[in-house]
Amino acid sequence: MAAVHESAMTQVTASASAAPQVRSTGKKKTIGAVLKEVKVEFPDVTLSKIRFLESEGLLCPSRSSSGYRRYSQSDIDRLRYILTVQRDNYLPLKVIKEQLDEIDAGNAAGDGLASVTPLVTADQFREAAVVSLSRAELAERAGCAVDFVSELVRVGLLTPDTMDMFDGDDLLVAETAVKLSEFGLDARHLKTVRTAATREADLVALAASPMRKSRAASGQQKAVEMGREMTALLVTLHGTLVKRQVNNELGK
Questions:
Q1: At what angle do helices 93-104 and 6-16 cross, to 10 degrees?
Q2: Locations of Polar residues compositional bias (predicted)?
């Protein structure tokens, strides 16, 4: 692998980490010295982790005549970048490697690499699949009892139409609720999720309202597209915050 472009990686590490950066003296460091240096900012990192990143092609330190790894300052900057985007942006190693390859090729600006990969996209918030299910049919498709469906309706997670029929979104909600029930979360627990979703939907509606009320012929469609994009961003934000909080609660 080509060495990381010095100026690009300097920009990346400066924007990705607030920790003081050690100026390069030209002297290369052992893996133990590197671990000691980065462990201040990344206490969970281990020698095995650094070796694993090398085995996956994300790091490529030089070797001494006796076969020991030797890390330059650019190697350490590269390691800091990897650890930072893993911790802060939850990027998979495959994506990080692609970003680093772009830096190596001189095709990417350092300050633009640490962008968040959304958990969902706007395209996933198109209209629900054209499905019309009775309460009994929904229960059968979701793999639960009719009483469970009725409880989901009672707490507001399912919203049948005036004919007591359910659509594709209702089916997805029911299937997800069934899976969560296997972990001991029943409909009562999921009321908090519905409440949070309602509040977030209100934020989207508030932001899109001026465009929806526009007299322009395309105003309604633009409001719909804006709503989808905002929904995807809010779901990504919500999911990331939940993940972070769970990690904190469970000690990662």
A1: 140
A2: 8-21
Tokens of 116: 């968040």
* DSSP assigned state of 116: -
DSSP 21-40: PPPP-S--B-HHHHHHHHTT
Name the one residue in this structure whose structure tokens are 């090729």: 105
Give the pLDDT confidence score for residue 123 in this predicted structure: 56
Contact at 8 Å (CB) between 243 and 90? Answer: yes
Tell me if 80 sits within 8 A of 41, measured CB to CB: yes
Looking at domain 6-112, does it have CATH number 1.10.760.10?
Answer: no
SS3 19: coil
CA distance linking residue 1 with residue 190, whole number of Å: 49
Residue 111 gets which letter from DSSP?
Answer: G
Please give the structure tokens belonging to residue 52: 């694993």
CATH number of the 123-250 domain: 1.10.1660.10
pLDDT given for residue 20 in this prediction: 32
Query: Does this model's pTM top 0.90?
Result: no
In the predicted structure, residue 6 carries a pLDDT above the cut 60: no
- Establish whether domains 6-112 and 123-250 are of one fold: yes
The ranges assigned to domains in the chain are 6-112, 123-250
- pLDDT class of 120 with cuts at 50, 70, 90: low
What is the spatial distance between Cα 76 and Cα 211, in angstroms, rounded to a whole number? 48
With CA atoms as reference, report the closest residue to 75 among 178, 2, 157, 128.
2
